[in-house]
Amino acid sequence: YAVRFSDRTSDKTQIKLMTDGLLLAEIQRDRVLRRYDTVIVDEAHERSLNIDFLLGCLHRILPQRPDLKLVITSATIDPERFSRHFGDAPIVEVSGRTYPVETRYRPLGDADQVDAIGDAIDELGREGPGDVLVFLSGEREIRETAEALGGRFGDRMEILPLYARLSHADQQRIFRPHRGRRVVLATNVAETSLTVPGIHYVVDPGTARISRYSARLKVQRLPIEPISQASADQRKGRCGRVAAGVCIRLYDAEDFEARPAFTDPEVLRTNLASVILQMAALRLGEIEAFPFLDPPDRRQVRDGIALLQELGALDPEGQLTRVGRQLAQLPVDPRMARMVLEGGRLGCATEVIVIAAALSIQDPRERPAEKEAEADAAHARFAGEGSDFLALLRLWEYVGEQQRALSGSAFRRRCKAEFLHVLRIREWQDLVEQLRRAARSAGIARNSAPAEPELIHRATGARGARFAIWPGSELARRPPSWVVVAELVETSRLWGRTAAGIDPAWIEPIAGHLVRRTYSEPRWDRRRGSVVATERVTLYGLPIATRTVAYAAIDPALSRELFIRRALVERDWDTRHAFFADNGQLLEEVSELEDRLRRRDIAVSDEALFAFFDERIPDDIVSARHFDRWWREARRSDPGLLTFPRALLLGDEADVSGRPEAWKQGDLVLPLSYAFAPGSAADGVTVHVPLRVLPQLRSGGFEWLVPALRLELVTSLLRGLPKELRRPLAPMPETAAAVLAELRPRREPLRAGMSRALERVRGVRVAESAWDLSRVEPHLRTRFSIEDDDGRVVASGEDLDKLRPQVARLLRAELSSAATGIERHGMGTWEAGTIPRVVTLPGTGDAVRGYPALVDEGETVGVAVMETPGAQAGAMVRGTRRLLMLTIAAPRPRLDNRVALALAGAPHGSLDAVVADALPATIDWLVARFGGPVFDEASFVALRGRVAGELVSALEVVLGKVAGVLEAAREVERRLDELPISPFEEARRDVQRQLGRLVHPGFITSAGVERLDDMVRYLRAAARRLERLPDATAADRDRMNTIHELEELHRARGSDPQIGWLLEELRVAQWAQGLGTREPVSAKRIRRLLT
C-alpha cells in the first residue's frame, strides 16, 4: 500500500492499495498509467473532488488504453449514472451478506447532544454485549464527547477516538482485542474508509462536516449539516457486520425521509475558483473540456478564472503562477487563502488565519430576535478600534481563555449564556488548526508577536478608515447608502460631520477623471442588434454605476466576431434579408435530411460557416446597423454573395431512398417526419394523422416502418429473442438479410411474417408471441401524431389503438359539427324522423364520414354521430333496446317450478333481478329476429308492435335457457366440492375462474340469448373435465397451459369478446370433444387471430 509519506510497495507488488490523491499524483508522471492493468475505485459514492478528478482522468485514459480495466464500486452508488458516463459500462450487482439491523429514532428535542449520546449508550447497554460506534462531526467534538462520557460512565467502558489525523498507533488501538464494552467516537472516516471491528451498535446524530461553497457569502464553508440518506444507511450498516445490530438515530424518521438520497458531489459544492486552481495545480487541463460526471456551469467557470487572475493565481494566459501554487495548498476559498498569503508577507499570518477561518464559517455570534439587546450587549465587549476584523480576533482570544479555564460542559453553558454558538466555535477552531498546518506546508511563516491592526487591515484588503455619522445629524438614525461629509473628526471615535445624502449617479460626471471603468461579459444583444458588455464604474474601489453599453468601440474585433457567430451563424437575429431566409431554409433542409438519414455528419460545422462570412464581410462591420448599411450597396453588385452554396452544406447528395415523405394507406396519404434524437420521445419516424381521417385509418401495417429501416428492425427483433433461439441464427447479419428478403412487408402481420420467414430460411420455429416489439430500439417503433385542422397535436404515442380513446371526445365534436340538426337528446319516444345511415364531413370530399345512431342515455334516448360503422351498429342495438323498454309495459312471465327453482340459485340475488337481466337480452333477440334495428319512425312503430306481441313468451323461453345454464353451473360447483384439494388445486382455480366469467350478475344481457345454449355446453365440458381429472392430471396441465398462454395474449391484445367465446369453444374441444363445437377451433387458429 501507499499513503502520504509512506510507501510499502516493491518491484514484486501485484496489488497496490493507495489514496486517490496519490494516484492523481502518479497521473502527472505517467499520463496513461502504464504501470497498471486494472484500477478499482472504491467508495465512489463519496464523490470527493479527488474521486471526480480521478474518474475524469480515467475517462480520458481509457480510449488510449483499451486494455486497462476500470472497476467502480460502492454500496450506495447510483450505478446507472456512472454506467452512462463510461459508455454504458456493464453493471454488476453483488448482494452483500449482512445481519439485520434495527433502526430506532430518538430525536434530540431540547436535550443536549452529548447527553443524548449518553442516554443512547445506556439504552444499548441493556440490549446485550457488543461495542458501540458513535459518529461525530470533528476532532474537537470527539474530545469533548469523550470527556463527558468518561465522567458519566467512568471505568465501565473503554472510550476511543477515531479520526483521519489520529496517529497510526492510536488508530491501531481499535483493532486490538479487549474486554468489556468499547465505545468508538469517530468522524465519517468510519462511514466508508475504515471498518471498525466488533461493532454491534451505532449511534448516529445525523450530521457531518461537509465542505460547501456559499454563493451568497462567496466563501467556502465547512458547516456541520445533516447527512444524506445514503450516508445514514452506510453508518447503519456498520453494526450489521458481525451480528444483528441496533442503530439509534438522534433524529426522527420524517427528518430521514426528507433528506436527499445522495450527498452532492464535491465539485458541485466547491467554489469553482478552488476547483480550477486545483486542476491547474494537478495539470488536468481546462475545466470546460474535462469529463466530469457532473460538469460545472460555464458561467461559474468564467467567473472562477477571472477571480484567480485577479488574485494573481493565474496569469492572463490561464497558467498557474507561483502565488497560485501556494494558494492551492490552503484548504479555504482562494480569496481567503490570498489573505493568509499576504498576511505571511506582512508578518501577521497568525491573526489573518483566525480572520480567514472566521469568514469561512457562519458567524458564531448569535442574535435571537427575542433577545437582540441582550446579545448586542454581550458581544459589545469584543468591538473596538473601528474594525469588525479586530472584533473577531478579540472574540477568538476570549473563547480560548474560557475554554482553558472551564470544563467542557461549563464551557458550553458559558457560550449559551453569552449568545455564542458552540458548534460554530468548534468549526472555527478546527479550521484554524487546518489552516495553520497547511500554511506551514506552503512555506507561510506565522508571527509570534502580535501584529499591528494596520498590517492586518492591509492583508485583508480593507481601506482602514471607517467612520460614523455625527449623532447630531439628521441622517444619524437612518443613514442613506451614500453620503458626502464636510469633514472627518475623531473624538471617542471617527465621526463624519455635516452630512448629506447623495445619488451616486452625480459622481461620474463630476469626477470622471478619477473613476475606473471595467468591462465584462461581452455578448450579442438580439434586440439591439449589436454586441454589448457590462460596464462597471468605480471610485476608489466603491461601485457607483453598473450598466450595459455598446461594445463595438471598446473591442471592434471581438464585436465583429460575435456579430458573425451569433447573428449570422447561430441565426439569433431578426432581419428580413433575402439571403438570411434562403440560408435558413437550406439549413432546415439539411437538418431534416440528417434526421431522415439518422446521421450528424452531413451539416457543415459552425466554424466553416463562420469562415464563409468572415472572408466576405469587411472588417469594420461590427453590428446589425453597420451590416445593413454595407449590404444595401454590396448586394447590388453580388446579390448571392452571402447565400450558402448548396455544396457548402451538403457536399455529396445523400441517398434518401427507402425514406418516403408520406405513408399511403388506400386513398389516405399521411405525411412522415423524421427525428434523430436518441433518448427523446420523438426519435424515429412519426406519422402525422389528421384527426378527421382517424376513423378511416387502419392500425395494421405501421409496425413495418419505412423500407430503409426494416433491416435494422428485423435485426433488432432477432437479437431480442431468448439466447437458446438466437444461437442457431449466427451470423446474425446474414440471417437478418435472408429473413427480410423472405418477408412480405405490409401484406402480412409483422410477427406472423417473422415466424414464417425464419422457419423458412433457418428452419427455426418461433412463436409469434415471442416477437416483442416493445424491446426494439425506440426509433424502430412508428410514432403517431394526431393533429387537428390547425396543426395542433392533440395526442401522440406509439400505439394507434390507445390514442383513439384519447381523442374520441374531440373526434365526436368534429363529427357532431358535421351533423348539425341530426343529434338529439332526452327523447322518450321516436322523435328523430329518419336517421341517415352516414354523413360526410364538409371539406373532405367523401374521405371522412360519420355514422349517426340511436344511443342509450339511461332514462331517455338520443341521436349521436359515431366514428365507425361498427360503433354505429353497437349503439343502435343499445339505443333501440332502451327505447323499446321505455315504450313497452314491463312483462310478467309465468314460470314452472323447475325454472323457478333453478333461477332461485342465480348470483343476481333475487328473481326480479334475474328477470331485469333477461329482459334486455330478450328484446335484443327479438329485434334481431324481426330485422332490427331500424332507422325511421314507421319502421320503429312496426318493430315495437311485433316485439310487444312476442315479449312475454320470448322472455319465458329465455328464462328457461337461463335455468339450464344455472343447473349446469350447479353441477360444476358440485364437482368442485367433491374434488380433493391436492394435487388438483391449480385445475380447481382455473375452473372456478371460468365459472366466474360465465355466470355472474348481468351475464344474460352481456352474453346474449344466442349464447345461452353454448354456455350450457361450456359448463358441461367443465364438469366432464373435473370428472376425468384424477386420471389425466399431466394431460390436463398441458391443455391448461395452452389455454392460459392464449388467455394472456388475449388480455394483452385488448380482450375481443368474439375471441373470448372462441377460447371457451377451445376448452370444449380440449376436454369434451364429444359435445361438439359451434365452429372449427384450434389453438393455432386463435393465436393467428390474436397476432
Textual characterization of the structure:
This protein has 40 helices and 29 strands. With 1091 residues, the chain is of the alpha/beta class. Helices cover 45% and strands 14% of the residues. Strands 5-14-9-6-8-7 form a 6-stranded parallel beta sheet, with helices on both faces. A 5-stranded mixed beta sheet has the order 21-22-23-24-25. The chain is extended. Helix 34 (937-978) runs antiparallel to helix 35 and helix 39 (1057-1071) runs antiparallel to helix 40 (1083-1090). The longest helix is centred in the last third of the chain and has 42 residues, at 937-978. Among the domains are: 2-94, P-loop containing nucleotide triphosphate hydrolases (Rossmann fold), CATH 3.40.50.300; 101-264, 3-Layer(aba) Sandwich (Rossmann fold), CATH 3.40.50.300; 329-464, no CATH class; 467-502, no CATH class; 516-550; 557-650, no CATH class; 662-806, no CATH class.
Question: Could you list some keywords that capture this structure?
Answer:
1091 residues; alpha/beta; Rossmann fold; six-stranded parallel beta sheet; five-stranded mixed beta sheet; 45% helix; extended
Query: How many strand segments?
Result: 29
Unreliable residue runs: 215-219, 461-465
* Largest sheet data: 6 strands, parallel
Hey, roughly how much beta strand do the residues contain?
5-15%
According to CATH, the fold-level topology of the domain at 101-264 is: Rossmann fold
N-end to C-end Cα span: 63 Å
Shape: extended
Please report the number of helical segments: 40
- What is the share of helical residues? 40-55%
CATH homologous superfamily classification of the domain at 101-264: P-loop containing nucleotide triphosphate hydrolases
- Secondary-structure-derived class: alpha/beta
The CATH architecture of the domain at 101-264 comes to 3-Layer(aba) Sandwich
